[in-house]
Specification:
This protein has 5 helices and 10 strands; from the N terminus they run H-E-H-E-E-E-H-E-H-E-E-E-H-E-E. By secondary structure, the chain is α+β, with helices and mostly antiparallel strands.
Length: about 150
């Protein structure tokens, strides 16, 4: 059980877990490959990115088939280095979840998630996704909803 799954259980929200295999980090677009492995449209699976915004770490959740629009995310924004992201969240890259992080970071989710009844995000380890309602993700992370994604 990961901290992300524990957070969802504690909150009493409805969720489903989805396991997948055969997707290796570093082989093309990891998040799109995960969506394909699960038989889902990439726009419904969301990846969790950690970035530095004016020197402070923040989390951005965007569809698998999109990338973070750094300009829309704020001034002086750049993706955090792997070690900093792992240290702050308590998760390894490829398994970083917006839920149950070691240190709660400010979170922004792309508004496209609202088009779906449920979405999937990492459940806190490679090979496991958690499916939940977008509103539950926003509530559990105290996220801001904004247009932060652009075509890759």
């Amino acid at each position: 059980m990961t901290p992300a799954v524990e957070a969802a259980k504690r909150a009493g929200i409805a969720f489903d877990l989805h396991e997948y295999q055969g997707v290796e980090l570093g082989e093309g677009d990891y998040a799109v490959a995960v969506a394909e492995a699960l038989g889902l449209p990439p726009a419904r699976l969301f990846k969790t990115l950690v970035a530095s915004v004016d020197g402070q770490l923040a989390v951005f959740v965007v569809p698998a088939d999109r990338q973070l629009d750094l300009r829309a995310a704020g001034k002086r924004v750049m993706l955090a280095d792997r070690a900093a992201a792992e240290r702050a969240t308590g998760y390894v890259v490829g398994g970083i979840s917006p839920l149950g992080q070691r240190k709660r970071l400010p979170t922004t989710v792309d508004e496209s998630m609202l088009a779906w009844e449920t979405i999937l995000v990492s459940a806190g380890r490679r090979g496991l996704q958690i499916e939940l309602a977008p509103a539950d993700l926003v509530a559990l992370t105290d996220a801001t909803v904004a247009a932060i994604a652009k075509l890759a």
